[in-house]
Description:
- The chain is mainly beta.
- It has one helix spanning 2-14, and strands at residues 26-28, 36-41, 47-52, 55-59, 62-65, 71-76, 83-86, 90-95, 101-106, 109-116, 119-120, 126-127, 134-139, 145-151, 159-165, 172-174, 179-183, 190-194, 204-208, 217-219, 226-232, 238-244, 250-256, 263-267, 269-273, 279-284, 296-301, 308-309.
- The longest helix has 13 residues, at 2-14.
Amino acid sequence: MKYAIILTLLLSMLYPLSCGPTAADINIDPVFSSVNEYPNWTSDGTKIVYYHSGIIDTKPGGAIIDKSLIGLWIMNKDGSDQRKLLDVFARYGRFSSDGNWLVYDLSGIIYKAPFTGDSIIVAEKVQLTTGGRNSFPGFSPNGEWISYRNFVPDTVSLSAIRIMKSDGSENMPIPGSGFEPSWHPNGKEIIAYTRVGPLTSAKKFVRYFPFDSTMPDTLNAVEGNDNQYPGYSPDGKKIVFSSHSPEGPTFVYTMNSNGTMPRKLEVGGHPSWSPDGTEIAFISAPESKKGFGLGTVWIMDSNGDNIRQLTKAPDIN
């Protein structure tokens, strides 16, 4: 799955928007990019926003990209009414708890835009950062703050967590390094993952306390695995995350918020709790495509039951 993520990022940088696929749009690589990534829920739990990489077909050794499809999409939680939300290379979006704003990253810049009904008011978007490589933004539960990932200049792998007021003011770093931050429901803690050992490994989760003097602490998650994308359940009692074993595929897990009792649920990654805590959206692939990338949006009950696919991937030719 992590190779698919890297490949999709490369595609998004290489292919500008156009009216449709051409021969030049074929990505020659034995592992296809994910069709979709990074599902997140609307605040009322009725819809899911996600990234579409534009893959519409495959050929031996490559995928065909329809560049007009690339961007953030939204659909009902049952998979119906799938449509493009942002006609740009936006890759990751999260909603404010009141449902009035979507914060998203676009070419390394963080923006927010009003969300009303089923649409983004792009003309009223607000740019919140001015430079750097910024991504994975998210509102605090009260909507006052936004956390995000910021790659540290002049380093190979260091990634810092920063927070700022929702208007972009009071931008400040959180000491330490981490990736893909997510808020605790109490609004006082942020969880992220941190690399330990080789640059390609991500072992532990780190909890930050940005508003007091409490030192960060770590959670081991699944020992020996590459653990990523942690997120608290709405009641703060559980953490959902993805975990990759050196011997096997990436799975979605849950565990207690203190790092105990990890439970394997289903093959997949990029998990996201529904606002009521009863369901988890994630990226996976049907059995016929599991060695090839081509991940799409799936949903399951929070205990791993009732698994169903919401978006589709092309057949492998």
